[in-house]
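Handout, section B. The chain below has 253 residues.
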Amino acid sequence: MRKPEVTLRNHEAVYDYYAQYKQPKAGAYIGHKVMSLMFRPNVEYASGAEEAIEDILHEDGRLVVAVNHLSDNDQYVVSSMALREKAFRPMVGNTFIQSKEILFHHPNKLLRPVLRRGVDAMGAIPAFRKKDVNTEDTDLRRQATNRMLQTSIQKLNDGQHMAIFPEGTRNQEQPDVVQELKPGICAVLGGVASNLMVGIVPIGFTYQGDRRHPQMWVDTPIVYSGQDNNVLLADLHDSLQHSVDYAISKALK
């Protein structure tokens, strides 16, 4: 299938394409390797978290890595962590992440196809953000968002893992306080097969002035069992805040 142009009005073709798209393993590894050279996060785990992650993978379950959002570099830091950390290495080349639509474009026409291949190889699927859409296209954006969520559900059911920034936007005002979480993660989890084990892995991190060596804290996975959406969001928010607090305390030592 030919790669479609990533625009809101073309969202049906866009999500038809990404629903069936498979990352090239070699390309994904190269991308993660480059990110691991650019960013070298210091990663620590809550007691038993690594073992819990390995148990989920051993049961052929899925990981949904949920991370607080601080800057445009965050997804590259997460990519670096996935390759550098043994517990997350099975995610390399088999993980998708909802990414802002502008990443799929580049003003330079010569670089555009090269960068598009790189973005695709790293598992990005387009997300059309409210702030990037004109008011008259609100209904169209809603349709596109529903297709993105359905595509995410399909990819989880088909064997892929997921990375997400559940705050939905960068936290530029109070980076040490986790923002309200968006409900999209609940919509995705509610659509996965009932016999599929899914572990939501909360990860909090901080740059604390060191962009290349951020401090990360991985909390114990929350196993999804059909929890009420409000309960799930509250538990995830608490765990993310706990993780951010731990990451900051470690970075300041």
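Note. The CA atoms of residues 95 and 161 lie 5 Å apart. Compare this with the example in section A.
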